[in-house]
């Protein structure tokens, strides 16, 4: 009898915790409508990004030593792997987002994810096509540069997620600027 009573109380507690969690989650504004930080990038930020991108492309072109016969494939690769423009179309503003029901918000989020997935598939296909035009030496350089870019992106993402926290990294090694352990 006592175990049945405990099970019922535990069940009620679990349902209550779940209900509170779900209601809090449903009220949270998603990162989607106004970007991850709640605002669209400024024209200055976009211009700075484009300058950095152009510089990186020029460096990559030089490192790969693109031949005249590869130049058309290089230009096609750059064209097809251009970052998607920051598109506010299809994204409701905060007031519109708040008016949507949970299923409507979820449908909008799913639609945005599908668009990002289609864009990613296009970029991957373009990269594979370009990669096939490279010599084995160029492929090694491309692989190394792409791996470096992924590491940089991962570190940036970790920094954004955790801020300037000075704890040990997940790999267990102390941070290079961390004070020595006592």
Automatic annotation (TrEMBL):
Keywords: Signal
Signal peptide feature range: 1-26
Chain ranges passing through the membrane: none
UniProt feature, compositional bias: Basic and acidic residues: 92-102, 145-174
Keyword Signal in record: yes
A single GO cellular-component term on record: periplasmic space
Pfam (any one): LTXXQ
Positions of region (Disordered): 83-102, 145-182
InterPro entries found in the cross-reference section: LTXXQ
Name by which UniProt lists this protein: LTXXQ motif family protein
């Amino acid at each position: 009898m006592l175990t049945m009573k405990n099970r019922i109380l535990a069940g009620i507690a679990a349902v209550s915790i779940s209900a509170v969690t779900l209601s809090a989650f449903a009220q949270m504004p998603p990162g989607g409508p106004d970007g991850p930080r709640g605002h669209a990038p400024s024209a200055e930020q976009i211009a700075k990004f484009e300058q950095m991108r152009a510089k990186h492309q020029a460096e990559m072109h030089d490192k790969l030593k693109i031949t005249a016969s590869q130049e058309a494939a290089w230009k096609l690769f750059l064209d097809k792997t251009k970052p998607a423009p920051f598109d506010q179309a299809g994204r409701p503003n905060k007031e519109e987002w708040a008016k949507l029901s949970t299923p409507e918000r979820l449908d909008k989020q799913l639609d945005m994810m599908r668009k990002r997935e289609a864009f990613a598939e296009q970029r991957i296909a373009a990269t594979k096509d370009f990669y096939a035009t490279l010599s084995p030496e160029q492929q090694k350089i491309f692989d190394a540069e792409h791996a470096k870019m992924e590491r940089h992106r991962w570190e940036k993402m970790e920094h954004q997620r955790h801020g300037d926290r000075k704890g040990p990294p997940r790999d267990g090694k102390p941070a290079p600027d961390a004070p020595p352990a006592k």
